[in-house]
Amino acid sequence: MFPRSSRNKKGRTLRIRERERMPVAIFVNAAGARQEVDVPNGVNLVEAAIDKGVQELAAICGGYLQCATCHVFVEEDFLNRLPPRSVDEDSMLDSTAEPRRENSRLACQIVMNDTLTGIVVHMPDRQM
């Protein structure tokens, strides 16, 4: 049996390695404050934001593509890593509180995967 300290140290190292493998999204509010959030693969950014308490992302419908209150601006480096907007997302972006831009997306439609780790999304000043 390993001494208690070795077992704890080994366990701590394992947890750090697991966290390093989890993709990360960075939410930036209108004031420029950044919040880094671990997002498991297959989880959309709204679910992660709600789970981690990102306050500025309204997401009134809970991430079901029904309200456009999860409007974000994706940094250019990540735009080409995202799938094209669906017809529904494109239509919903016409009803956002802040005018849509070329890099506008709905966070509920951004599903995390390893190629998106480090994605930076800026939240507009107004969501409603």
TrEMBL record:
Residues 22-127 form the 2Fe-2S ferredoxin-type domain. Keywords: 2Fe-2S, Iron, Iron-sulfur, Metal-binding. Its cofactor is [2Fe-2S] cluster. Pfam families: Fer2 (PF00111). GO terms for molecular function: 2 iron, 2 sulfur cluster binding; electron transfer activity; metal ion binding. One of its GO terms (biological process) is P450-containing electron transport chain. Gene3D superfamilies: 3.10.20.30. SUPFAM superfamilies: 2Fe-2S ferredoxin-like (SSF54292). Belongs to the adrenodoxin/putidaredoxin family. This is Ferredoxin, 2Fe-2s. It comes from Granulibacter bethesdensis (strain ATCC BAA-1260 / CGDNIH1). The lineage of its organism: Bacteria, Pseudomonadati, Pseudomonadota, Alphaproteobacteria, Acetobacterales.
